[in-house]
Structures are given as C-alpha cells and as structure tokens.
Amino acid sequence: MKAMSNLKTGLTLLAAAAAFSGASAMAAEPAQQASVVIVHGAFADGSDWAKVIPLLQAKGIKVTAVQNPLTSLADDVAAAKRAIANQPGKVVLVGHSWGGTVITEAGNDDKVASLVYVAAFAPDAGQATGELGRDLPVPPGIGKLVVDQVGFASLPAAALAADFAQDVPAAQAAVMAATQGPIALKAFGEKVGTPAWKTRPSWYIVSQNDRMIQPDLERAFAKQINAKTTELPTSHVPQQSRPAEVAKVILDAVAATR
Length: 258
Description:
The chain is of the alpha/beta class. The chain is about 40% helix and about 15% strand.
C-alpha cells in the first residue's frame, strides 16, 4: 500500500511539474506579430503595393493585398473583411486613397488593432467620399477622369502619369495605367456608418504634391482622426515613389500593436 501511495505521489508531482513547465513555456512565448492587410484605392489594384510588400515581409510580417472589385463601398468593405477574417490574429489595416474610406468602415472588425491611411480619405459618420473637400479647388487629376457607358471612372494614361504618379518613371506609370481598376462612380455617394478611427489608433501619410486629393484635405483628415502624421514630398502614390518611408510608418503601427 505504501509503495502504491508513493507511486501516486510521484505521478502527481510529475504532472504538476509538466503543467508548470508548459505554462512557463507559454508565458515565455512572444505574442504573435500583427498581420498587415492593404486596401488599394481607385485607379489601381493590389500591385500598386508591390514595392512595400517585400519590405514588410523581410521583417517577418504576413501581408495580404486586397483586390477590391471597386463596384461599391459595400462590395469593397466585404472584400476587406474577408481578408481580415483570414488573418491568424490582430491586423494593421492600411488604406490608400479611396481605400481610406473602405478601411474606415471595414476597420470596425474586432481583429483590427490599428489603421494606416496613405494619402487617403477618412470620412466621418454619415459622410460620403464625394462630399469631402468641396470647399477646396478640384484636384487636377479628378478633372481628367473619363467615365464609361456603365458609370465606371478611370484615368487616361497621360493623366495618370501627370497627376496620379508624376514622380515615378514613365515606364512604370504606363504599367500602372494598364493595371488600374476603374471605379463605379456610385461608390463615391455611399455613406460611412461608424468610423473605425474613432476607436482605433491611426497613422496618416500626407502626400505633399498630391494632385488627386488636396494635401490640405489630407492634413485635415489626419488632424480629425488624431493620427500620428508623416508628410512626404510625393505624388498621390508614395508607396510607389517612397516605399521605404511608407513601410516604416506601417512597421511603426505593427510595433505599437500588442
């Protein structure tokens, strides 16, 4: 009987030791790094971020570039939410241009820890993108949009080179024109519900030489959402002309996510 009792005691101690060891290992295991989900803007697609993505991946970050249908705000939000749902943990959600409106809505997902706006719209509750900046001059690029018979807007190649991406090589701008995604004009009339920036920390990159969104409007957005703000001397696409600086802002957001 005594031997049996000693055996039971020994097994209990072993089990306790194993449990303690497992708990210690779990405690010592570092928290999972946030993933990055990128939402491109109008007149672009996911390849618009091809220079930034490798810089993030080199730091071990899981990156997903959403391919927006650009058929409506609701459709683009749904595409972003599908990408967010597929991430293993917390998400830093990045939006460029029109993508800022998308992340303002999609960012309410529980997995989203923070938001990064890159030369992007950041509407408030009940606002539509088309209403923003009406008190400012129309940006040069917006005045050159062409609309097809079914209501989708795009930029002619010359306008894209002059007003969308004037600080990238001509050959690169030509590829961007060929891969751009036309957007349904009706999307600009769809209103945002609850803005995610009201409950999440935000970062904002202002493009000082933007010819698609007035830089002063971008500064107003950054102030409104209380963002950590970086200004870059770029066109509307700093992710193309200054990818390292854009990656740094995103990395800062990832590092701040716990």
